[in-house]
C-alpha cells in the first residue's frame, strides 16, 4: 500500500507534471505527499556570471536566490495539493540532489519516489536527466516512477 509519496521538484515543467501526477495517485490511494526541492551545492560553485553582475553588483548571494526559488517551487506545489485536498509537507534540502532525495525518502518513510525525466540541469544525458538516472541506479528499496515530457 502506498501511504507516502516523495516528489522531487525543481520547478521545471516536467517536475510540475510529476507533482500533478503524484497528486492524482495520492487522491486515489489516500497517500500523503512529501514535496522535496534540493539546492544543488555544485550550482553554488560552478555558476559563472557576466561582468555586469560582478560581486559589487550582486544584490543578494546566489545561495539566498536559490533558497527563495526553492521556496517558491514548494509553495506552488503545495497550493496544488491543497486545492486537490491532498495532505502534503514541503522540504528543502541543500546538497547533492541524488543523495538528498534518497536521504529524504528514508526520513519521510516514502513508499515511492516520483520525479521528472529531466530537470533544469544544464548537463542532461541523452535519455534521462542526471539526477533521475542517479536515483534509479542508487536505490533498490524504493519504487521510482519517472514522468516523461
Secondary structure topology:
Elements: E1 4-8, H1 13-29, E2 32-40, H2 41-46, H3 62-83, E3 88-95, H4 97-107, E4 112-116, H5 130-137, E5 144-147
Parallel strand pairs: 1-2, 1-4, 2-3, 4-5
Helix pairs in contact: 4-5
In short:
The protein has 149 residues and is of the alpha/beta class.
Description:
The structure is a single chain. The protein is α/β, with parallel strands linked by helices and 149 residues long. The protein has one domain (4-147): HUPs (Rossmann fold, 3-Layer(aba) Sandwich). 43% of the residues lie in helices and 21% in strands. It has helices at 13-29, 41-46, 62-83, 97-107, 130-137; strands at residues 4-8, 32-40, 88-95, 112-116, 144-147. α1 (13-29) links the parallel β1 (4-8) and β2. α4 (97-107) crosses α5 (130-137). The chain is globular, with a radius of gyration of 16 Å. It starts with a strand and ends with a strand.
Pattern of helices and strands: EHEHHEHEHE
With strands numbered from the N-terminus, the spatial order across the biggest sheet is 3-2-1-4-5
Q: Total strand count, please?
A: 5
**How far do the termini sit from each other?**
27 Å
CATH architectural grouping: 3-Layer(aba) Sandwich
| Overall average residue pLDDT | 85
Question: What radius of gyration results from the CA coordinates?
Answer: 16 Å
- Counting structural domains, the number is 1
Sheet with most strands: 5 strands, parallel
Number of helices: 5
Gross morphology is globular
The CATH homologous superfamily is named HUPs
| Overall helicity | 40-55%
Q: What is the CATH domain class?
A: Alpha Beta
Amino acid at each position: 500500500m502506498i501511504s507516502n509519496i516523495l516528489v522531487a521538484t525543481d520547478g521545471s515543467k516536467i517536475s510540475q507534471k510529476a507533482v500533478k501526477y503524484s497528486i492524482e495517485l495520492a487522491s486515489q490511494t489516500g497517500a500523503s505527499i512529501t514535496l522535496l526541492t534540493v539546492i544543488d551545492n555544485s550550482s553554488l560553485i560552478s555558476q559563472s556570471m557576466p561582468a555586469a553582475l560582478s560581486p559589487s553588483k550582486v544584490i543578494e548571494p546566489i545561495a539566498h536566490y536559490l533558497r527563495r526559488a526553492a521556496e517558491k517551487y514548494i509553495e506552488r506545489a503545495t497550493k496544488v495539493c491543497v486545492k486537490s485536498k491532498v495532505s502534503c509537507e514541503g522540504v528543502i534540502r541543500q546538497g547533492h540532489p541524488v543523495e538528498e532525495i534518497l536521504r529524504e525518502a528514508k526520513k519521510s518513510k516514502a513508499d515511492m519516489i516520483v520525479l521528472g525525466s529531466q530537470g533544469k540541469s544544464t548537463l542532461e544525458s541523452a535519455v534521462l536527466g542526471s539526477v533521475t538516472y542517479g536515483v534509479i541506479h542508487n536505490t533498490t528499496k524504493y519504487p521510482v516512477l519517472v514522468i516523461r515530457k
